[in-house]
Design goal:
Elements (H helix, E strand, L loop, with lengths): L3 E2 L2 H6 L1 H6 L2 E9 L2 E9 H7 L10 E2 H6 L1 H11 E5 L2 E2 L1 E3 L5 E5 L2 E11 L8 E5 L10 E10 L9 E9 L4 E3 L2 H4 L1 H18 L1 H12 L3 E4 L2 E4 L3 H27 L7 H20 L6 H23 L6 H30 L3 H26 L1
Parallel strand pairs: 2-11
Antiparallel strand pairs: 1-4, 2-3, 3-9, 5-6, 5-10, 7-9, 8-9, 10-13, 11-12, 14-15
Helix pairs in contact: 7-12, 8-10, 8-12, 8-13, 9-11, 9-12, 10-11, 10-13
């Protein structure tokens, strides 16, 4: 079942993309002077840092990965270090390895356990320096559960949070100052913005709709929309419909009110891009607000799958969902603000309506068809 891992497709086809969005995940639960959790590292990143493909044949076998157990363990011990009260804690990377995926990238899941031998004075700290030599854009998303509040060890109150370690901030202190409500809110907003930027399928769906926001269909051909006000109203309706729709499904899936296999969500997202692009070539749906709303429901499920991979910190679930959704909206508005003024200017030219709109929609449909075939 784990004979071949699809790794080197990533190595040879999208190295720039992987370096730009290199991300690791740490889900941990604290308890006094101990901690446990799971560290997830992209196989692409580990290949760059340790070297996994022993025979260099372009395919990574499970036995090749296991043969690097000592090298990976040694690498993690050097670059993932816990301490408490300036005393180093014992960190064991044990248990059974597993495989997972995030944003269509293969990940190695490594269980870890932390034991601090001191008196427990002071909060637990994590110093993480892995993979920055391979990618300055690399980051570690740390999700924490069981963080005690500062009212005393015997209160039984717990909290959690989410924080990011990057090349500019390589040490994280597990206390409420670093992992409180406000910090989690900021982190989830940033991740929402980042995801809409990384989600090329979401971007192409939105751009497909924007391409025809600046034109009108008359007598079987596209003509320039008469005024900017008409364009702005049309765009606002489409963006609002998309926002309302994906907010509904994002919340429903995040809170386990609806369960949909992620594979089919991704298939439907690719299909939505095809429909939006082809509709520009052969207009069937004239009122694009309905199209935006219908497929916005599907895209919301895709957003929710990313949010669930990030994890919802205990006691902050609602804040995390709202913050992530707000980040998605902020990213979406940034895209519209950047693209729409350009399209408003270009709409006056015949070559835009006759050639650029058509060729762009055709190219988007071809790309989305490739995604659809890959995801089936």
């Amino acid at each position: 079942m784990r004979t071949v891992i699809a790794l080197l497709f990533l190595l040879v086809s999208v190295p720039g993309y992987c370096h730009q969005f290199s991300t690791a995940y740490l889900n941990t639960e604290l308890g006094g002077t101990q901690a446990s959790g799971k560290l997830q590292l992209a196989l692409f990143d580990l290949e760059q840092a340790v070297g996994l493909d022993s025979n260099g044949d372009g395919q990574l076998l499970w036995r090749e990965l296991q043969s690097k157990h000592v090298a990976i363990d040694s690498y993690l011990r050097r670059h993932v270090q816990f301490s408490q009260g300036k005393q180093a804690c014992e960190t064991v990377f044990g248990g059974n390895w597993a495989l997972d995926s995030h944003v269509n990238l293969a990940y190695l899941v490594v269980p870890l356990s932390v034991t601090c031998r001191g008196t427990g004075a002071g909060p637990l700290q994590l110093k993480y320096t892995a993979l920055f030599a391979q990618s300055r854009q690399h980051k570690l998303l740390v999700s924490v559960r069981g963080l005690r509040q500062q009212r005393g060890e015997n209160t039984g109150d717990t909290n959690g949070g989410m924080q990011v370690i990057d090349i500019n901030k390589q040490t994280l202190t597990f206390d409420r100052a670093s992992l409180g409500l406000w910090q989690s809110f900021r982190t989830y907003v940033a991740q929402g913005v980042l995801h809409i930027g990384m989600g090329i399928d979401h971007l192409l769906f939105l751009i497909s709709l924007l391409l025809v926001c600046v034109v009108e269909r008359r007598h079987g051909r596209w003509i320039a929309a008469r005024n900017t006000k008409t364009i702005m109203v049309s765009t606002a309706l489409i963006v609002t419909a998309f926002t309302v729709a994906h907010s509904i499904t994002l919340s429903a899936v995040a809170f386990d009110l609806v369960t949909v296999p992620s594979r089919w969500v991704e298939v439907c997202i690719a299909a939505s891009v095809i429909v939006a692009a082809v509709n520009n070539l052969y207009p069937v749906v004239v009122k694009l607000g309905w199209l935006s709303f219908a497929f916005g429901l599907v895209h919301g499920m895709g957003f929710a799958s990313v949010l669930r991979e990030l994890g919802l910190p205990a006691g902050q679930e609602l804040v995390a969902v709202l913050a992530f959704n707000l980040g998605v909206e902020a990213g979406q508005l940034m895209i519209v603000s950047a693209v729409l003024p350009i399209l408003i200017t270009l709409r006056q030219f015949l070559w835009y309506r006759r050639y650029l709109l058509t060729s762009s929609s055709l190219l988007i449909s071809v790309i989305a068809t490739h995604w659809l075939i890959q995801r089936l």
